[in-house]
Amino acid sequence: MGDAMSTCDVLVVGAGPGGGNAALQCARLGLSTVIIEDHPAIGTPVHCGECISEIACENLNLELPEHVISLRVHGIRVIFPDGTEKCLSEEGYVLEKHLFERWIADEAAEAGASIHLNHKLTSMEKVEESGRFAGWLCDGKGDQFPIRAKVIIDASGVAAVCSKIVRLADEKPLNEMGKVVAGMQYEMLEVPTDGYLDFYIWPKYAEKGYLWMIPKCDGRANVGLVTEDRPRAKKALDEFIDITHFKGLEQVAPPWKEKGNPAFGGTIPISGPFDNTHYDGLMLVGDAAGFTSPLFEGGSHLALKSAVYAAETAAAAIADGDLSEQRLSVYSRLWKDEFPPYDKILRGKNALFDLTDDEMSVMAGCFPDEMGDMGVSGKAMVGLRLLIRHPRLYFKRIVPAMLAFGYSRARYYGW
Ligand SMILES: Cc1cc2nc3c(=O)[nH]c(=O)nc-3n(C[C@H](O)[C@H](O)[C@H](O)COP(=O)(O)OP(=O)(O)OC[C@H]3O[C@@H](n4cnc5c(N)ncnc54)[C@H](O)[C@@H]3O)c2cc1C
C-alpha cells in the first residue's frame, strides 16, 4: 500500500460497458466516484461481437455518437443446419465497441468520475465504525491504492474479482464460479451483407453455441463463434469459414490491434446470475454477476442496465447512511423484476440442442419467415404445423425451444 489513501463514495471495478455506465450514473447522481481498469486502455482488447439493439439504446437513454457506430443493422437472421433462414427483425447497431466503451468512460469523467487505468483490485477489507459496516478498504496494483469506498460496484466481467475475494462467514467465496464458453472471431474484408446479423445454429462447428457474421462498415465483418468445445474453437471456426462463402476472404487485424494473431475473443459466463449479486457495500453488475442472455450470449444491454440499478441503489443507500447487505438487497430485487427468466430460456436452449440437425431444420421449416412478432396465434400455428407434419417432434419440447428464440429479442435483453 502507498502512504496516502484515496477515498470515495463508490469504487467501480472495471471499465467495460457495465463499469463505465455504473460510474457515469453514480457521478450524475452526485456520488464521488472512482473507476479503475486493469488494462492500460479502455475497451481493448475487444471481446465482443459488438452489436447492440435500438431498443437497448432507448431503454438506457443512450444517444450514440456517430463515431462509435460502425453500421446500422436490421436484426438477426438465424440460419439452421440445412440452410433454412428465419429472421428476428429489429433495428440495431454494430459498434466500434472499444470506441463505445471509451465514449461512456469519457461521459463518466465529464460527469465527475475519476478514471485510473493500469489499476487492478486484488484485496478488500471490511471497515466498521461503531460496530456497523462502513465501507471497504481496497488494495491492488496502481498508485491510487489504498482506496477506501463506501460502496463497490464490481463490473470486472468474467473475472468476477469481488466474488473471489470476499469470503462469507463460512469462509466460502461470495460466489462459486460458474461455467464459461469460449468466443472468438476474425475481422474479414469484403463480406457481402444486406444489413442483418447472420447467426448460424450449426452444432457440428459450434457445440451448444452458434457462429456469426456481424457486418461492419466498409465491407468489414466479424466472423466468429461461441462454443462449449473450447479446445476446438479456432479449428472449428476455420473449418466453418472453409465451407462457406467466407472462404478466401481476407482476414485482417482489427484497427485497435497492432500485432499478433488477428483472432480475438474471450469467455462468456453461461451459468446464469450468481446467487449473491449484493453484499455489505457491494453490488455485482454485468458479466461479473453472470448476466448474459442464454441463447445468443449477449451481455452488453444487461451490463448497462444492471449498472443503472446499482448506481441508483448506491445513491439511496449512501444517502440513508445504511450500506448493509439488507439495504442493498433492493438492487437484486430490481434486476430480478426486470430481467427475463434465465432458467426458462436455458431450458429452451437445452431443448433446442437436444434436437438433431435434421430435427432442428424440420422445426425451422414450421416457423414463419419472421420469428420476431409471432404472438400467441403465430405460436399456436407453429405448434399445429408441427403436430400435423411431425407429431413425433411436437413432443420433443419444441415449444420451449421456440420460446428461447422469442426471448432472444432485444426487449428481453437478447442484444
Ligand atoms: C466473442 C464474444 C462476442 C460477444 N458478442 C456480444 C455482442 O455482440 N453483443 C453483446 O451484447 N454482448 C456480446 N458479448 C458479451 C459482452 O461482451 C459482455 O457481456 C459485456 O462486455 C459485459 O460487460 P461488462 O462491463 O460486464 O464486462 P467486461 O466488458 O468484460 O469489462 C470488465 C472490465 O473489468 C476489467 N477488470 C477485470 N478484473 C479487474 C480487476 N481486478 N481490477 C480492475 N479491472 C478489472 C477488465 O479488464 C475489463 O475491462 C460477447 C462476448 C464475447 C466473448
Describe this structure in words.
- It is a single chain.
- With 415 residues, the protein is α/β, with parallel strands linked by helices.
- It is 32% helix and 26% strand.
- It has twelve helices and 17 strands.
- The protein has helices spanning 17-28, 54-59, 97-110, 161-165, 233-243, 300-320, 325-338, 342-354, 357-366, 375-389, 391-394, 398-406; strands spanning 6-13, 33-36, 51-53, 69-79, 85-95, 114-116, 120-129, 132-141, 147-154, 180-188, 197-200, 210-215, 221-227, 251-252, 264-269, 278-279, 282-284.
- Strands 3, 4, 5, 10, 11, 12, 13, 14 and 15 form a nine-stranded mixed β-sheet that branches.
- α1 (17-28) runs parallel beside α3 and α8 (342-354) packs across α12 (398-406).
- The radius of gyration is 22 Å and the shape is globular.
- The protein starts with 5 loop residues before the first strand and ends in a 9-residue tail after the last helix.
- Bound molecules: flavin-adenine dinucleotide.
Give short descriptive properties of this protein:
single chain; eight-stranded mixed β-sheet; 415 residues; nine-stranded mixed β-sheet; binds flavin-adenine dinucleotide; alpha/beta
Helical coverage, percent range: 25-40%
Count of DSSP strands:
17
SS-based class? alpha/beta
> What's the alpha carbon Rg, rounded to whole Å?
22 Å
Q: What is the makeup of the main sheet?
A: 9 strands, mixed
Portion of residues in beta strands equals: 25-35%
Report the order of strands and helices: EHEEHEEHEEEEHEEEEHEEEEHHHHHHH
Uncertain residue segments: none
Q: Total number of helical segments?
A: 12
- Note the gap between the termini: 41 Å
Catalogue the ligands. flavin-adenine dinucleotide
Overall geometry: globular
Query: What would the average pLDDT be, to the nearest integer?
Result: 94
